[in-house]
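G.,

No rush on this.
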Amino acid sequence: MLVLAFALFGCAQKTDMDAVTARVTALEEKIATLEKRGGSGPTASAADPAKEEAANAIMKGVTEAMKGSDFGAAKTGLEKLTKEFPDTKAGKAGERMYKEVGLIGTDAAPIEVDSWFQGKGDYTGSNVTLMVFWEVWCPHCKKEIPELAAREADLKKKGVQVLAFTKVTKSATDETVAAFLKENKVKFPVAKEKEGSMSKGFNVSGIPAAALVKDGKVIWRGHPGRLDDATLDKLISG
């Protein structure tokens, strides 16, 4: 690398060459560190195919258990996955899922908001509450929120109220959130979180995210797109 640096900067003054040399040396040290850590890159060791296959098999079982609302089996599978295969792709995905499933059966976090963009809501307003976490800059959220708005009437017939929460992060502003809600004819209550307390209380690490609360207890946690009518009916009737 140093030879290449001098070839490229042969006409540079000594002070310039010292700076180039320092940058090249720093780069070499960084590459060496990444290689020792096994980080991403051409020198990173390849994943063990056998472990990946075993982890994928466990994840498949977890997914089936989740579809059948057998959260006990899902939790057991995730525990095995994260302990025995933590370095696999499925194992890393399982870490977040484990935090989600771990909430099921616990008391729902109290509703703490900075302000409401529209409406107001709490757990006492309905037997079942669908909590949705989103941001206006999130492409998937911009798809899910309007779809939930279209389903709201049917959800109300099932005794389910929808409450949505945003932290108004990155490029979002109160104005862009309000404009999005108006443009997409969203009618259910939407609030601005108070210092992210709601997201923390529901272990939200990726959005969109959702949780179903019944009688003050979390009975489901996951992606809102996975909560179809069949799954919802089974959960609220259980």
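When you get to it, here's the other one too:
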Amino acid sequence: MSTFYGDSSKWLDFWNQFEGTIHNNGNLSKTEKFTQLKSLLSGNALAAISGFVLSDRNYDSSIEILKDRFGRQDIIISSHMNKLLSIEPVRNISNVKALRKLFDECEIQIRSLESLNVTFGSYGNLLRPIILQKIPEELHFEFNRNRKEQSKFYITELIEFLRREINCREAANLMNYSKIFQRQDKEKAETNGITPRLNRKLQVRLLCQR
């Protein structure tokens, strides 16, 4: 099990693992469970229960404190929203690697919100400006130009747009690398006095749909 440091966005993963392997283990006493719990906490999480000595009663109290401090749904939602806010913006549309990282981080937080039964309607208006401020102006403009009027699932539409755009740009980069390799092969063959022959072929299927 990984150590829990107090990041509320990671609480559910931690608790589900701990509950399944230790908390519900009938072969362990509460004091033993408390020992295991403390060994898996660090940072703010450990500090929250640092005043408790090992005992059955204190184990129950510690669980209550941790759940109230890090496991409340409103706190977890706020944590995911803060992670979206802290994502590094990408200003250069040619930086495909950074765009992919931005997209993956956004999707992780959005899917986590969905797992908490947070509906599009309840957080869509908050997410919309956050994500649009993170992407290059060219993509922002392209999305607004092509989006459907009064789209019901705006966030879904935005995420799918970014997915297609990034997939396309990654595929285009692969095509460019293929051309570079082919040119290098040709130059090497000509230098060695060998008839140029294509010996590398990369086929890329573009994943975007205009």
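The chain has two domains: 8-71, 75-184. The first helix runs from residue 11 to 23.

Enjoy the weekend,
O.
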